[in-house]
C-alpha cells in the first residue's frame, strides 16, 4: 500500500518525456497558484521547441513498437495503472485540490477515481477490439482496427487528472501514443499520471506531458508528427484548434463549452430537481462544462423551487478546501473569478433578480459565494454566454413546447436534463432536446461506460465508452479474392 505518500506541489521537473522528468529552463515560467490563498506553490517552464521535438520523436519511435504489442498486454498495463491510481487516491486528490482549489471532499471521489475508471474500462476492453469478417459469396473481406499514431491531448483546468486519463486510456488501448498538454493553470497532476503509467509498465515515450500555454497547444495541433488532436476547452479555442488541425486533415475530438438547459416540470419531485440544479451548477464551484446553467422551471412550481433552492444553499460549507467538511471551494484563478464577477454585474444591470450569493469573500484567494438569479429572460447576456462559475439562472416557462424551443435556442449543445414524474414526457422531451449528453431526473453523472460529448458548437466526437474507440482508431478494409482475377484485357 502507498497510503503514506505525500506529493510535493513543486514537481521534480516541468515535463515528462520519454519515460523521465525533463527540464528546460529556457521556457517561460508558469507559476502554480493555490486558489484558496493565492500563494505560489510551484513553478514550471513552458516547453520550448526543442522539448516538443524531443517528445514527438520519442512518441513516434515508441508508438511503432506499441502498435505491435498484443491488445491484451496493453490492457493489462492500463489496468495495473488504474489499481496504482486507486491506491494513491488520497495523495493524488490532495495534489488536485492544491492545483484546482476544488474541495478535497470532491477530488477524493471525482478526479483520480474517474481517471482510474477510464484506465480500467479501456484496459478491460482492449483485447476485445476486433474487426469484422464480411462474407461476399466466394470472396470475402475483413476489417482491422488500427491505431491513428501519435495523439495530442490538450486539457482544461477543471478536471486535470480526469481529462488526462479520459484521453490517454482509449488512445493507449488502441495502440497510440499520447502527448498531453495540461492547462497552464493546473500543470501538476498529469505528471503524476505519467509517473503511474511508467510504474505500471508502460514503455517510455507513450504517455508524455508537456507544459505550456496556448502556443504549445498550437504547435502540437499543426505538428506533422501528430495524427490526432483531442481538446477539452472553450469554443473559441476549439475553433482555432479544429482549423489548425484541418491543415493536415488530422483527426480531432473537441470537448467544448456549453450553456445547457434543465427543464423542471410542475410534477417533478421538488427536492430531486433542486438537488439536480445544485449538482448542475455549484459542484466544482460551477466550473463544469456540462452544467445545467439555464434552469427552466414550469410556472406552477417556480416560486417554491427558488425558495427551496435558496434554503438548501445554506448547506454550502465554504472554507478550507483541504478540510473534508468543506463542499464549496474557490474559483480556479483570479482571472476566472473576475470573468464571473463581470457576468454577475451584467445580470443585475440587465434586470435579473440576484436572489442570493455572488459576493466576493474578504480574504485571500479567489472566493465567490454561489449565486442564484431569478426572473432571467432569454436575451440577457447571462442567459446566452457560458459563465463557467457558480451562477444559476432560473427561467419560467408554461408549456412543454415552449420549454423545449427555448431550451434549444442556443448555439451550444453539450448537455440537457429533464425533471418530471411523467415517464412518457421525460423521453419525449429528451428526444427533442439538442444535446449530446442528457439526464432524466438526474444531472451531471459521467460514468465511463456512457459516451460523453456535445452537438452543435459544443463539440465533435465522443469521449468514454465504446464510442471513444471510434475516435482513437481507424478501420482498414481488406478484400480477399478466392478465385482468379478477371481483367478486361
Ligand atoms: P481554454 O479554451 O482557455 O483552454 C483549454 C486548453 O487549450 C488549455 O490547455 C490552453 O492552454 C489550450 N489552448 C489555448 N489556446 C490554444 C491554441 N490556440 N491552440 C491550442 N491550444 C490552445 O479553456 P479553459 O479556460 O482551460 O477551460 C474552460 C473551458 O473548457 C470552458 O469553456 C469549458 O466549458 C470547457 N470544458 C469542456 C469540457 C468538455 O468535456 N466538454 C470539459 C471541461 C471544460
Overview of this protein structure:
- The model has no long low-confidence stretch (mean pLDDT 97).
- This protein has 16 helices and 20 strands.
- It is globular.
- By secondary structure, it is α/β, with parallel strands linked by helices.
- A seven-stranded mixed beta sheet has the order 14-15-16-13-12-17-18, with helices on both faces. It has a six-stranded mixed beta sheet with strand order 9-8-7-10-11-19, with helices on both faces.
- Helix content is 38%, strand content 20%.
- Helix 3 packs across helix 4, helix 4 packs parallel to helix 5 and helix 8 runs parallel beside helix 9.
- It binds nicotinamide-adenine-dinucleotide (NAD).
- The site of nicotinamide-adenine-dinucleotide has 28 residues, from helix 8 and helix 9.
Major sheet size, sense and barrel closure:
7 strands, mixed
The number of strands is: 20
Rg over C-alpha atoms, rounded to the nearest angstrom = 24 Å
Q: Percent of residues in helical segments? A: 25-40%
Low-pLDDT ranges? none
Spatial strand arrangement across the major sheet: 14-15-16-13-12-17-18
Distance between the termini: 72 Å
Our estimate of the beta-strand percent is 15-25%
- The shape is globular
Structural class: alpha/beta
Bound molecules: nicotinamide-adenine-dinucleotide
The number of helices is 16
Q: If you average the pLDDT, what whole number results?
A: 97
Amino acid at each position: 500500500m502507498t497510503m503514506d505518500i505525500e506529493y510535493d506541489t513543486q514537481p521534480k521537473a516541468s515535463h515528462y518525456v520519454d519515460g523521465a522528468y525533463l527540464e528546460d529552463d529556457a521556457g517561460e515560467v508558469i507559476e502554480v497558484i493555490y486558489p484558496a490563498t493565492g500563494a505560489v506553490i510551484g513553478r514550471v517552464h513552458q516547453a520550448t521547441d526543442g522539448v516538443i521535438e524531443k517528445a514527438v520523436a520519442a512518441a513516434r519511435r515508441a508508438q511503432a513498437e506499441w502498435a505491435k504489442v498484443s491488445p491484451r498486454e496493453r490492457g493489462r498495463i492500463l489496468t495495473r495503472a488504474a489499481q496504482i491510481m486507486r491506491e494513491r487516491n488520497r495523495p493524488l486528490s490532495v495534489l488536485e485540490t492544491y492545483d484546482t482549489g476544488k474541495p478535497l471532499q470532491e477530488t477524493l471521489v471525482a478526479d483520480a477515481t474517474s481517471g482510474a475508471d477510464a484506465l480500467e474500462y479501456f484496459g478491460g476492453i482492449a483485447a476485445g477490439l476486433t474487426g469484422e469478417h464480411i462474407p461476399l459469396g466466394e470472396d470475402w473481406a475483413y476489417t482491422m482496427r488500427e491505431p491513428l499514431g501519435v495523439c495530442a491531448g490538450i486539457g482544461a483546468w477543471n478536471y486535470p487528472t480526469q481529462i488526462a486519463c479520459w484521453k490517454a486510456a482509449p488512445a493507449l488501448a488502441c495502440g497510440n501514443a499520447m502527448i498531453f498538454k495540461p492547462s497552464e493553470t493546473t500543470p501538476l497532476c498529469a505528471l503524476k499520471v505519467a509517473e503511474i503509467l511508467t510504474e505500471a509498465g508502460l514503455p517510455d515515450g507513450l504517455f508524455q506531458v508537456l507544459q505550456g500555454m496556448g502556443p504549445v497547444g498550437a504547435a502540437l495541433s499543426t505538428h506533422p508528427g501528430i495524427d490526432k488532436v483531442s481538446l477539452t476547452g472553450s469554443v473559441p479555442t476549439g475553433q482555432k484548434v479544429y482549423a489548425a488541425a484541418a491543415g493536415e486533415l488530422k483527426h480531432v475530438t473537441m470537448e467544448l463549452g456549453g450553456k445547457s438547459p434543465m427543464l423542471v416540470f410542475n410534477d417533478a419531485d421538488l427536492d430531486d430537481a433542486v438537488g439536480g440544479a445544485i449538482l448542475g451548477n455549484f459542484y466544482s464551484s460551477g466550473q463544469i462544462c456540462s452544467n445545467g446553467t439555464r434552469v427552466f422551471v414550469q410556472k406552477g412550481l417556480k416560486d417554491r423551487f427558488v425558495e427551496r433552492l435558496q434554503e438548501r444553499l445554506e448547506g454550502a460549507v465554504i472554507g478550507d478546501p483541504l478540510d473534508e467538511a468543506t463542499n464549496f471551494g474557490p474559483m480556479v484563478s483570479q482571472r476566472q473569478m473576475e470573468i464571473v464577477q463581470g457576468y454577475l454585474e451584467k445580470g443585475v444591470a440587465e434586470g435579473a433578480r440576484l436572489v442570493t450569493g455572488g459576493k466576493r469573500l474578504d480574504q485571500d484567494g479567489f472566493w465567490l459565494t454561489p449565486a442564484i438569479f431569478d426572473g432571467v429572460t432569454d436575451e440577457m447576456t447571462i442567459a446566452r454566454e457560458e459563465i463557467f462559475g457558480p451562477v444559476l439562472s432560473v427561467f419560467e416557462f408554461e408549456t412543454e413546447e415552449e420549454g423545449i424551443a427555448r431550451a434549444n435556442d442556443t448555439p451550444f449543445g453539450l448537455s440537457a436534463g429533464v425533471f418530471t414524474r411523467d415517464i412518457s414526457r421525460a423521453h419525449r422531451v429528451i428526444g427533442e432536446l439538442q444535446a449530446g449528453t442528457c439526464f432524466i431526473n438526474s444531472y451531471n453523472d459521467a460514468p465511463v461506460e456512457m459516451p460523453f460529448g456535445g452537438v452543435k458548437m459544443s463539440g465533435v466526437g465522443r469521449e468514454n465508452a465504446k464510442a471513444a474507440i471510434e475516435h482513437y482508431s481507424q478501420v482498414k478494409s481488406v478484400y480477399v479474392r478466392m478465385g482468379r482475377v478477371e481483367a478486361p484485357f
